[in-house]
Protein 1
Amino acid sequence: MFNGPESRLRKALNKKRPAIGSWLQASSPTCAEILANAGFSWLGIDCEHTSSGIQGVEAVARAIYGRDTALLVRVSSADTLEIRQCLDVGAAGVIVPMVETTAQARTAVAAAKYPPQGVRGYCFGRMNDWGSRFDEYAASANKNVVVIAMIETRTGVDNIDEILSVAGIDGIFIGPYDMSGSYGVPGQTQHPLLKKAYQTLVAACNRHGKVAGQHIVNSTPEKLGAAVELGYTFICLDADIILINQAARAVMETARKSFNLK
């Protein structure tokens, strides 16, 4: 666990090399295993917009343990206990939604780091093999644990330099739909106001040496190429439910054509 996908993800983030992941929204360990076996470097289980709780996070962590994929958790908020629990059951880091201020960023980092950098509590758990590797995990956790701030509002964009100045924030992940609502153009994720905001965020990441993240839905080579050109390196492709939906519809379309069905 200590020289595995968690530390490899950390190295990719530090060097701003592409780190390709996907969302887990079905709360299914089986889906997580399948995506991990496909080669994603990280998977993010969504505990903000789904029914997934701490037991679901633990089940997914077990499912992909030993594979070359790090687990990140999109927590419901910058909540100290929730962040602590997710890390203790085996997550490599957290993606924290709706970060708008330095105070929220500091709270998230403090929850994810052991003293003196933070307030995370020590214990025996999955993350340290139930205490058998306590010393090794405790010594490496603050260096390896990932904290990504989701920027989803106009206020977050306005405060981006202050947010990225918080030690322990590794980068940002843009939430385009919430941001479009914040700018008064709900659903128009390619509106000129949003495009300008994206540029502001990526430029700030470059100034601070932090990674910029983007969710690419219905991914294509063209969309991936555009993301790379714009400077995104923390990339989320689709989601388990999107990939299942696309594959199911594709095989049914093939079946309809083969059997001449309407």
Protein 2
Amino acid sequence: MLTPILNTKAKKPLYEQLYVYIRQNIESGEIKNGERLPSKRKLAEHLRVSFCTVENAYAQLLAEGYITSAQRKGYFASSGQMPRAAKTQVQTELRQEKPLTSSLKYDLKTNAVNTEDFPYATWTKLMRECMREDPKLLLEPIHPQGDYGLREEIARYLRAFRGVTVRAGQILLGAGTEYLLGLICELLHSSGFAAENPGHHKIPKILTSRKVNPLYIPMDSEGMCVDALLKTEASVAIVTPSHHFPLGTIMSIGRRRQLLQWAEGQAGRYVIEDDFDSEFRFVLKPISSLQNLNPDKVIYLNSFAKTLAPSLRIAYAVLPEALLAQYRERLMFYSCTVSAFEQHTLKAFLKDGYYERHLNRMRGIYRSRRDTLIKGLAPLEESVHISGQAAGLHLLLRAPALLEEELVKRALEAGVGVYPLSSYYKGERAEAHTVVVGYAGLKQEELEEAAALLVKAWRD
């Protein structure tokens, strides 16, 4: 009989503690593949917990493939788990690909979230309900733009919380913003796409892979420099107006109007609004979308990667009416790249109000993590300037006395991964004293220790 020590006073729910205990025992081989697990009722009685606690833990293990169920026989550790030798080989290959991160104790990367914060119980419950209500869900074809009911829920959310002018028919679902950006490149037929400089590493790669010429436009304190944009042959501009990555700049209303005037100045010009990190604002009120100012000239792009989990791979684009007609005429042969099962689960998650509650909870969690990291770096306040704390899930740390390479090197020697701001630029940059750090993927106690290590590494 399984006998984990469950802490009733811990913040982590009992079902999650039990789930982690069984998962770790399966991964380590303590519970052999194919070994039968206790029934839910017997285990609940043995541990003196509710039946629901065990049921939720088993449901999560079942959803992730750690256990299987057989009618009237019970639950068994999954025989489909990867053998230890094969897993070791994969880990070895990953270490070879990224030698600099193999020795890191804490990686302050910007593309991570802590999976322990994911609402496993709610999501699993909705998955079961979707399957029970519609057993043929996985067999039926889905609309190329995605499930209409989910698109209605996304449209409702965007109208209410982001000020987007949208109807469900304009929304296009896809497996990540990278996929959707590639589809938009194919739709627009433009040879010149303007991208922010600095900006996300992936955008130039996506554009180049689609045989599109990326044109790099500098940033200032108000956003993309439209004066520089006007000097190019670009007909499409990709911007992050609500929270620029990595600078954290909020595009001013004057610059927004200037950018839209550029788009209106010639037929075929469009602005792609990547609403990056717009859900996480800690100081100022949420800023209305750029799309709201001119729905005919702005393609709105967002995803659930940061708000739920990157592995869900559910993103969406809002197409202007003119582009929607072109998409339906030319590109409707592409199948939707998100499974119907996940779409129906997300639809229920949005419709029943779970998403809004989850966002509110995560804002509180991320605010606490941000504060923990800033507090931990307080001994460096005279030598390190912190910016970007008003929104988003990363900070900029600027140390005028040290070059970026020295900051990164010292942090790496202390076991902490930080990232040079200059790596996000195309071309040379005069000043190089700033690093980018993300805090969403670590727990508060881990951030405390990571900050202490950085203080020790940089203080001298």
Protein 3
Amino acid sequence: MTELIKTLTQIDGISGDENKVREFIIQEIKDYCEYKTDPLGNLLILKKGKNRASKKLMVDAHMDEVGLIITSITSEGFLKFNIVGGIDTATLMFKKVRINGEISGVISGKPIHLLGKDEAKTLPKTDTLYIDIGANSKEEAEKLVSVGDSAVVCGSFEQIGSKILSKALDDRIGCAILIKLIKEYENYDFCASFSVQEELGLRGAKTAAFSLDPEYALVLEGTTAADISGVSDSETVCNLGEGPAISFMDRATVYDRDLYNLAINSEVLCQPKRAVAGGNNSGAIHLSREGIKTLAISVPCRYIHTNSSVADLRDCENAYKLAVFMMDKILSGETK
């Protein structure tokens, strides 16, 4: 799965501009399932298995990553931008960016030696930053970039032991696990969605769930891990190397208790997500139509929503194993 995660993370696809990610996924899964793209851009899947399922299950992973969108070009040729998704401004200064997968630039602002005393004590606001692509004028910049173009903060893929470091681990890890399930899981029929615009408020999952109309859903995600120096045990949320995190509640969802108990008591290594915080596509999916019994299986990621997020490959493998376990239980009709 490592090479698949590596390839997926290095494709650029911010919310609303997931085309290249979707095109790659189609090439990976086209020989294993039926698929279609809906008007919003979600990739909807039907995978036939050896047995007819007792319940209809949807497995979801979102394709989009956080990023930037160009809003204007100054007379000097600098690019102003807005943030797409949840990015801390502190992680942006002097980072290399890639626009439309082609044009390189650097996020810049006022140099530290020109900052006033009060300015030096506070983080810069997004509207004070700009992207420098080396253009000398607005006209020169407009030959390369247009307002509305998307950009990502560059982050190469690295592996150190069982740990991986990259941009876009949220949620290309989930996409990799779902691709593997589509290729390898054959016990029962199931449906799936590679959804769009999760980082802007769970938008794609809302329409995908309405279209697929499942009774159950598994959401494959990356989630914040704070198991780092200076953070108390009570605030770590989840730990790398201890398996996928299973949520009982977050700011968008109260998860199905039977599914939570089934997962947390399985023989697959996993851990409870020890905080009521954040949210994922479960928030939209579980409220679709008459309601859907939903569980999130999330791979812990340090420094999430940065270009240097860190995860553990062992957690990715256990997330896949837990997904298979839950799929068997749901699709066979063993769950309530």
Protein 4
Amino acid sequence: MIDGKKVLFSGMQATGNLTLGNYLGALKNWLTLSDEYECFYSVVDMHSITVRQDPAELRKRARNLLTLYIAAGLDPKKNCIYYQSHVSGHAELAWILNCFTYMGELNRMTQFKDKAAKHADNINAGLFTYPVLMAADILLYQADVVPVGIDQMQHLELTRNLAERFNNIYGNVFTIPEAYIGKVGAKIMSLQDPSKKMSKSDENPNGSIYLMDDPDTILRKCKRAVTDSEGCIRYCDEQPGLKNLIDIYSACTGKTPQETVQEFDGKGYGELKPAVAEAVIGVLKPLQEEYARLSKDKAYIDSVIKENAEKANYYATKTLRKVQRKVGFPDRIR
């Protein structure tokens, strides 16, 4: 708890370009949380280097992502928006937690198996211990809640296990985090393969709408979206491509899927697809304009980076010093 509020932690990797799915599924919902929670939103650039990165490109993407957080509406005075790499406590706590993590636990992590298959030429130790750094991210700020998708639940369970294991040995040191159960964000699927989530790492650029896509690109991608040959607008699992377009339109307009189906009753896909594009363009235009404005204000973004890093370090250090003392590290001489 900080100032009577529960603590919430979340973050995104500084790789690839954020998609409409990232925005509707997560970022948009973050905007309403700062009144209820003390929120820490990290640009998790340390996680990014488990895969080889171009250094200049990583720095650029990290700054772009932090700027996007603010452009989307996150107030850096009410939320702590910071670079993971600017808080050394993440790495320091991760090392300590590594010493309390069993090999068998890491061997069971399905994401390691998936990523190792994709990057067979670079199966590094960081990729293997990635979940421990994730646990450190969460426990460092004594987070009460963590918004996670189904694919991250295994990592949160490991975090809880590590916190409980440490507490059982040394007393009440870590808050045991819970999964955040709030308003569920729209689950947006690939426009080209509706069996998969829309992803910033999709090899087919037509499968994802990126937050910085221009109107013509958005319209083209929506028109090319995979549907089916039925030609009948229904909201059902048997028509996954069509269902995905309805979900996107509904999320962008605030309508329910049923209201969307009713609106397009008797119309074809040729009318739905441009309407979806227009709805997406309408949602992204103000975000893109604010991002462009903020990107030109170097002094302001620099001040946010500095002030929020100081805030994150303050809370991280409080936890880290307590943990270091518990495990027996010598006190620091002031």
